[in-house]
């Protein structure tokens, strides 16, 4: 890479993208960054566009579902952080085409300038998923059994990047993310729901759900992306990244409740009932018979009664050794305790 590396960011106005771009500005200056952006949908996205423009970040209008994705030619850069995606697990597969077909079209647009470039792809734990009662955490070598259209399209995005690298001459690094939390997090996501339930003292928030889940604060995710995207050691590698904690969903609710000053008195699930729930959610015949409108709820239940989205981070922590926020440290800028 050059002494002053240059970067292209897709999804730079999104939740993780906003923190990533700010980190790049602080480390390398705004003149080193190009953001491929489409018309903002939310107020946070609109504010991000204006702040980037004011700081001197170059903006290129485009849409990954167009062909070409932009009327402007792709810029010459040293690394591409590809974060643009539809992360709505409730969306049908047609609405998620940006995750796979959009990745293909991005690579086609980049092809004239991509030789020698590093492409860092933000993937998801959902590419692995589970198809039976888990026995241990997910690692980079765990099987692929995505049960949602989101997981399937993100997995196809991974495969497209790996396949095209052979002919296009770029290197790549794939980072599979767990639940990412922090200020500006996904509305109605896991953390938003747990914070609301803890704040309101709802009965559902008191159930001691035993499923382990991996998490990471958005600033830690952004910092890891930058460092690993610039490292020769991580080229051609896949990493499951998460914090050093893997709380159960019930523990997560209790710790959030304690943080917001609303201690949660947990309600344990009786062992026979827990066993029945696990037998139910991992029964393939029952799963296949569930009406389509109820399958996502069935899927979500399986992830909280068993160790659903729980990562083994040993490979990640061998190359990224910086301290990661504890949950309590991460909640400081996530929760409004007023």
Q: Distance between termini?
A: 47 Å
CATH superfamily of the largest domain: NAD(P)-binding Rossmann-like Domain
How many runs of DSSP E, i.e. beta strands?
A: 9
Based on CA atoms alone, the radius of gyration comes out at: 20 Å
Please bin the fraction of helical residues: 25-40%
Bin the strand percentage: 5-15%
Number of domains: 2
CATH topology of the largest domain, by name, is Rossmann fold
List keywords for this structure.
alpha/beta, Rossmann fold, 2 domains, 7-stranded parallel beta sheet, two-stranded parallel ribbon
Could you walk me through the main structural features you see in this protein, from its secondary elements to its overall organization?
The protein has 338 residues and is an alpha/beta fold. It has 2 domains: 7-185 and 215-245 and 310-331, Rossmann fold (3-Layer(aba) Sandwich); 190-208 and 249-305, no CATH class. The protein is 40% helix and 12% strand. It contains 12 helices and 9 strands. A 7-stranded parallel sheet has the order 3-2-1-4-5-6-9, sandwiched between helices. Strands 7-8 form a two-stranded parallel ribbon. Helix 1 crosses helix 6 (218-229), helix 5 (190-200) crosses helix 7 and helix 8 (271-281) crosses helix 10. The longest helix has 20 residues, at 149-168. The chain is globular. It starts with 6 loop residues before the first strand and ends in a 7-residue tail after the last helix. The model has no long low-confidence stretch (mean pLDDT 93).
